[in-house]
Specification:
Blueprint lengths: L3 E10 L2 E4 L18 E12 L2 E10 L4 E9 L6 E7 L6 E8 L2 E7 L5 E9 L3 E10 L2 E9 L2 E8 L3 E7 L7 E2 L20 E3 L2 E8 L7 E10 L4 E5 L17 E9 L5 E8 L28 E6 L6 H13 L4 E6 L14 E4 L3 E3 L12 E3 L6 H19 L3 E5 L9 H12 L7 E6 L10 H10 L2 E4 L23 E3 L26 E4 L7 H15 L6 E4 L6 H11 L5 E4 L5 H6 L3 E4 L3 H10 L3 E3 L9 H11 L4 E2 L7 H12 L12 H14 L4
Parallel strand pairs: 21-22, 21-26, 22-23, 26-27, 27-28, 28-29, 30-31, 30-33, 31-32, 33-34, 34-35
Antiparallel strand pairs: 1-2, 1-20, 3-4, 4-5, 5-6, 7-8, 8-9, 9-10, 11-12, 12-13, 13-14, 15-16, 16-17, 17-18, 19-20, 24-25
């Protein structure tokens, strides 16, 4: 659970806020709360009353395991003093919007845990509150009320990621759902309210949390252009987030709330919240008190490389990191940290110090559904927060024991944002190492995710990293590689290493790309690690049943180690007795399997792409696509344009369409690609040059 705290910002408009000079942020923390054992404070709302500022906010009560509403006061808006707890229930409360109407004070908190939106009225303002009315019943969060054109309006988060609007001519009764509901459907990037609605002259500004990558990551402003009982329309008021994490300190991880107020001098004063770095002392030390790392270096005089890899869905990042680790150990002592679920029967290569962290994985989502960045723990006895705290302890212990000269972190900060609680402290420890300053590098693939805001990753990269290793070929300018815009603010070097190929999977006869058509081998179907391969495998099975077997084709479906067990059982059961069909759980050398295939039908992740392009096998790729995850699609478009593969968009994946595409691919002659596949050894030489202070 993040440690939220509260700060004060100011601005010249409701679209421009920054820290207020003379204020030491955060102004309120969990330690400020004196009448309960608070874990964090968040969701602040202010009002100015009788010459002083009153701030109402959520404080998470550790003992009760829920949020309660507390009060702090200030005479100048800069220095704040905690007062007391003012409202609590038998359920969680947060987001305490306070306002005055017809001479009375009202408080509208989030009470989602009670399955209702409940309004409270001050009995003794600001300390005593009593229930006034239940305005709505349902699964609603963060009610955000405002008055406009003689009518009350109220935004609420409905369910997990949809925005709804209600209106009423009176405050206490008659709330009606807007006919356009949901105004925003299943969009975590802009559906959740992020603070008070501001009416600035003719403009109405709504603030929304951006939760696409990480809960509470940042705030974007939206201007309401049309508002009536029959119509609603809004536009994004700025392409940049109005609040975003700084990469350091009390708001280094996330900022998800803004409450602005116009002052008499025309400036704006706002209270905000932010999530900062975890405490150095772990709350879960007792879970792993005796953990220690044992490593054996053949040549202790060599520099040490600590390489961190986290694979969440498939095996691409894991396979590439293993290849890099094996190459690096030719010149360095290497410790490879792996944070994902290990493949079944995996054994680390000899000579590579491999450390398996307590595994975390992404919650699975079927192909085409919203891309999910929520984490799951492999250990059902530990929560995700406990695993992250435990892993942070391990990472810092490894660092202190080894004091490595090089730290390489795979994919972060351009991805893996949910792992910030363990990676921030590791990066800080590296940067605070006074003797023999370590070289800190980010290692990324050829394509980064689209539809994401890279402003904060650029800030963190500039602050914490010395360079970025891009594992692609400079002769292959993939569309997303340029990072149009964000790369302009990256002040550290980008090094293109060439593509990284897993050498252990190269058959002796396949050291170079060959071009060939039609063989007697099977149609090989693979979705890499297989976690989301179900739709592809079922369509392929239907093709073998209804078309391929009758024409004498054999088919081999390689499901992958992360293909869900129930789906594996169902697929093998359905495939029993189908002529020419073989279904395997896993293949240790995918390159060998493709070398012996007449045709491949596959996802197009980084490593599968390398195997396909290297083999010369006619390939029909069906790229994995989900919301905000178009990496495989962009890669497939590029190589299809070069004539190296054929592509079927996953939206068009049906058995009948797959038959048509297979027929066309069987007579397709791929153009051998020109590409640098020596990315692993190029990386070794590059790191050696950088460590020696030479320019590569």
């Amino acid at each position: 659970m993040k440690k939220w705290s509260i700060g004060i910002y100011h601005g010249n408009s409701p679209l421009d806020f920054s820290p207020l000079a003379g204020v030491v942020n955060p102004v309120l923390t969990a330690q400020s709360v004196t009448d309960m054992h608070a874990l964090f404070v968040a969701d602040p709302f202010m009002v100015c009353h009788e010459g002083r500022w009153l701030m109402f906010f959520e404080a998470w009560n550790r003992d009760r395991g829920m949020g309660e509403i507390c009060l702090a006061t200030s005479h100048d808006g800069k220095i704040w003093n905690y007062d007391q707890r003012v409202l609590w229930e038998n359920h969680h409360l947060s987001y305490p919007s306070v306002f005055q109407w017809q001479g009375a004070w009202y408080l509208l908190p989030e009470s989602r845990a009670a399955h209702a939106v409940t309004l409270y009225k001050a009995k003794n303002f600001p300390y005593e509150w009593t229930r006034a009315e239940t305005l709505l019943v349902g699964d609603f969060a963060d009610p955000t009320l405002f008055f406009h054109n003689n009518r009350f309006w109220m935004f609420v988060l409905e369910g997990k990621d949809s925005l709804a609007l209600f209106f009423s001519d009176t405050l206490l009764h008659g709330w009606t759902a807007h006919p356009c509901n949901p105004l925003i459907h299943r969009d975590p990037g802009r559906s959740r309210p992020g603070g008070r609605v501001v009416i600035d002259g003719e403009r109405i500004i709504r603030y929304a949390q951006d939760n696409r990558i990480l809960y509470g990551q940042q705030i974007f402003p939206y201007e309401i252009k049309e508002l009536s009982t029959t119509a609603y329309r809004e536009e994004q008021a700025d392409t940049r987030p109005i609040l975003f994490p700084t990469g350091d300190g009390w708001n280094g991880i996330a900022m998800h709330h803004l409450d602005p107020h116009l002052l008499d001098n025309g400036h704006w004063l706002a209270c905000v919240d932010g999530a900062g770095l975890p405490e150095q002392k772990s709350d879960v030390d007792h879970l792993f008190p005796d953990w220690k790392i044992e490593v054996a270096f053949a040549d202790p005089s060599r520099p040490t490389v600590l390489f961190y890899c986290q694979h969440l869905i498939g095996l691409g990042h894991f396979t590439r990191s293993l290849a890099l680790g094996q190459a690096l150990r030719t010149q360095f002592n290497v410790v490879l940290l792996s944070g994902g679920t290990p493949p079944t029967d995996f054994q680390a290569p000899p000579g590579l110090n491999f450390v398996q962290l307590p595994p975390l994985a992404n919650q699975s989502k079927p192909m085409g559904q919203t891309f999910c960045t929520g984490l799951e723990s492999d250990d059902q006895t530990l929560s995700v927060d406990e695993v992250l705290a435990l892993r942070k302890k391990i990472l810092l212990d490894i660092w202190d024991r080894l004091l490595p000269q090089v730290l390489i972190i795979e994919h972060f900060p351009f991805g893996r944002r949910s792992l910030e609680p363990e990676l921030f402290p590791l990066l800080e420890r590296a940067k605070k190492t006074e003797k023999n300053k370590p070289l800190v590098l980010s290692s990324i693939r050829d394509i980064l995710g689209q539809g994401m805001d890279y402003r904060w990753p650029m800030v963190l990269a500039n602050k914490m990293f010395d360079g970025v290793l891009v594992h692609s070929d400079p002769t292959c300018p993939l569309p997303t590689l340029a990072l149009d815009g964000p790369v302009l603010s990256l002040n550290i070097p980008l090094y293109q290493t060439g593509f990284v190929v897993s050498e252990k999977n190269i058959p002796p006869t396949l050291s170079h790309t060959v071009s060939r058509i039609q063989r007697d081998g099977p149609i090989v179907v693979t979705a890499g690690g297989g976690r989301n391969g179900g739709p592809l495998y079922r369509a392929a099975l239907a093709v073998q049943k209804t078309w391929a077997a009758e024409r004498g084709f054999k088919m081999r479906i390689i499901c992958g180690p992360f293909f869900p067990e129930e789906a594996w059982v169902a697929l093998t059961r359905e495939g029993q007795g189908v002529a020419g069909l073989r279904i395997d759980r896993w293949e240790n050398s995918m390159a060998s399997a493709l070398e012996n295939a007449c045709l491949a039908v596959a996802f197009f992740g980084y490593n599968t792409a390398m195997d396909l392009l290297r083999s010369g096998t006619p390939a029909l790729v069906v790229p994995y696509v989900a919301e905000n995850d178009f990496e495989q699609l962009e890669r497939a478009k590029w190589w299809q344009k070069k004539g190296a593969i054929r592509m079927l968009h996953p939206d068009a994946l049906t058995p009948s369409r797959l038959i048509t595409e297979i027929q066309q691919t069987l007579v397709f002659e791929p153009v051998p690609p020109r590409m640098d596949r020596n990315g692993a050894m190029n990386t070794v030489n590059l790191v050696a040059h950088l460590l020696s202070g030479e320019k590569p």
